[in-house]
Each structure stands twice: as C-alpha cells, then as structure tokens.
Amino acid sequence: QVQLVESGGGLVQAGGSLRLSCAASGSIYSTNVMGWYRQVPGKQRELVAIMSRGGSTNYADSVKGRFTISRDNAKNTVYLQMNSLKPEDTAVYYCNAGLRWGPINPYWGQGTQVTVSS
C-alpha cells in the first residue's frame, strides 16, 4: 500500500502561480510513476502530468508550457509547479502513483482544491 498526502492548493488570481506537493509513504517501490490528475464536478478525472522515477514526463496539452512536474526520489515527493494559471484550471487536483506508465495507477491522494479567479 502507498499513502499519498497532497498540499499546496488554494485560491489564486488568473496569471498567478501555485506549487502542489505530494509525499508518498508506505510501499515506496510501488511509486515508479507519480503524477497529477484533476477533476471538476460533472466531468471525468483527467491527466495533468505524470513523471517516472527515471525522469520521463507526460503533460496534458492544456498545461504544456505552463505547468512543470518534478520529483525528489530521495524524499518520495512529487511536485507540480503551476504558472500562468487560468480560471479553467480550477479543479480538485489529485496525486496518483503506481508502477505503470500509461494506465491510471491505483494509488490516490485525498485531493487538494485549486481555484483560479478571473
């Protein structure tokens, strides 16, 4: 089992920045891939960005050039630096972790709200 704890959400004006963090504990060997998804009410959860332990990344087209994912393997922590935020980035952001690249992995954090005001 893997436990994921997110932090860093909040309210920000359009054009502003936020940094999300997600710390993993438990079966760390199961965190080969860590990343972020987001969800708004009435819509499916969608990929934001994922990163492998070796440094490979994948971003949603909507966040490319604005968001940067990074991870500190020694701290078992993944980060999401969000710049140039837009109102449409408003969502609950969930940390995700597991072994596989591609399919959604099984471990989730509790979610953190990001609200971008116009």
Can you tell me about this structure?
By secondary structure, this protein is mainly β. The chain is built from no helices and eleven strands. The strands form two sheets. Strands 2, 4, 5, 6, 9, 10 and 11 form a seven-stranded mixed sheet that branches.
Q: So what's the overall shape?
A: globular
Largest β sheet strand count, sense and barrel closure: 7 strands, mixed
Number of helices: 0
Unreliable spans: none
CA-to-CA gap between the ends?
40 Å
Quote the average pLDDT.
96
DSSP E strands, number = 11
- Structural class assignment: mainly beta
Features:
118 residues, 7-stranded mixed β-sheet, 0% helix
Summarize the structure.
This protein has 118 residues and is an all-beta fold.
SSE blueprint and pairings:
Elements: E1 2-7, E2 10-13, E3 18-26, E4 33-39, E5 46-52, E6 57-59, E7 67-72, E8 77-82, E9 91-98, E10 107-108, E11 112-117
Parallel strand pairs: 2-11
Antiparallel strand pairs: 1-3, 3-8, 4-5, 4-9, 5-6, 7-8, 9-10, 9-11
